[in-house]
Specification:
Length: about 100
Amino acid sequence: MADPMRIRAQAQGGNAVVRVLMSHEMETGQRKDSSGKTIPAWHISNVTAAHNGKQVLNAEWGPAVAKNPFLQFTVKGAKAGDKIAITWKDNKGETRTDEATVS
């Protein structure tokens, strides 16, 4: 299982700025190993974010996203104490969900 995501959610006015650092190798499927064999593609294909259980973001990603991707977005109407949950799913079917509280 992948390492936990590092999530920071900070209230700013009537919104919250959410910053997420995900731990994932993100192989494109185009690189070769030392013996010349192609390294199979392995990347995050979908990212969702929920604010107090209601989905506020749905992103479809592909192999061109960098290793250990960083994502930043703003949630309108979020305030201190609200919960932000981030979930990713990769092309091998693995998933990870982590949650943070808006501060």
